[in-house]
Write a structure and sequence with these properties.
It is a single chain. The protein has about 230 residues and is α/β, with parallel strands linked by helices. It contains 9 helices and 7 strands, in the order E-H-E-H-E-H-E-H-E-H-E-H-H-E-H-H. The protein has a 7-stranded mixed sheet, sandwiched between helices. Strand 2, helix 2 and strand 3 form a beta-alpha-beta unit. Helix 5 packs parallel to helix 9. The protein starts with 12 loop residues before the first strand and ends with a helix.
Length: about 230
């Protein structure tokens, strides 16, 4: 991993795991910085110029020399935010522009007011156009996550989450793939962290839909979660 200099700031930080997001990341970084966030981009082995664009836009860029997966990239960003900044809250957000920056502001205000350790953004607590296959993949993920953690969420696979510094002491992602979302929820359960869901907006493009969770990756995720669960026993 490259790019690990500490910064002295108490601003909230946003972690953006990114793989070949050169077409979206500049605008997102600029919006986040204009709102006062420290932006940490984890370039997960991109083959385009994601790294250069993110650096020019003013983000802290950590780079995996090879693609390690969404879970590994997220953990890299969370570890850096906890160890190298003084951010009171750390947000994870998809780098493809599907989330609204205004929702991040709302989630941060909510976690502060409710004094929760973790807040999960939910695409399903308000009206959103979520494609059927994405809905089905999430439903499968919800059921398996509940079976593994005892926590039922309406959107267990959401990429938009807010963590307190207390929570980051307990979150240790070991899964490289998309099963890391369920792993985080299990960590929340096992560590007795307080949590809540809050509605968010989401916008899908053809490019966005080509990435992330779908029904086929959902079944792979389920298989990996079951294997990991058996290994922990």
């Amino acid at each position: 991993m490259e790019g690990t200099d500490a910064i002295n700031t108490e601003l909230n930080a946003v972690v953006l795991p990114a793989l070949n997001e050169a077409g979206h990341i500049q605008s997102l970084i600029q919006k986040l910085k204009s709102k006062g966030y420290v932006v940490i981009v984890v370039d997960d082995g991109s083959t385009d110029n994601t790294q250069e664009i993110a650096e020019k836009a003013g983000a802290i860029v950590l780079r995996h020399a090879v693609n390690c997966g969404a879970g590994a990239a997220t953990q890299t960003g969370l570890t850096y935010a906890y160890q190298c900044t003084k951010a009171p809250y750390v947000i994870t957000c998809d780098a493809d522009g599907q989330h609204e920056v205004a929702d991040i502001d709302t989630l941060v205000s909510f976690i502060e007011e409710q004094k929760k350790d973790v807040v999960f953004g939910s695409r399903f607590l308000q009206e959103n156009h979520v494609p059927l296959l994405r809905r089905l993949a999430n439903m499968v993920g919800n059921v398996i996550t509940f079976a593994l953690s005892g926590i039922y969420l309406s959107d267990s696979q959401s990429g938009l989450k807010v963590f307190s510094r207390k929570a980051l002491q307990y979150i240790n992602i070991t899964a490289n793939g998309f099963e890391f979302c369920s792993e985080i929820i299990r960590e929340v359960s096992e560590s007795n962290l307080s949590y809540a869901e809050y509605p968010i907006h989401v916008y899908y493009s053809k490019e966005t839909l080509s990435k992330g969770q779908n029904l086929s990756t959902g079944f792979v995720t389920v298989f990996k979660l079951i294997v990991r669960s058996l290994m922990r026993r």
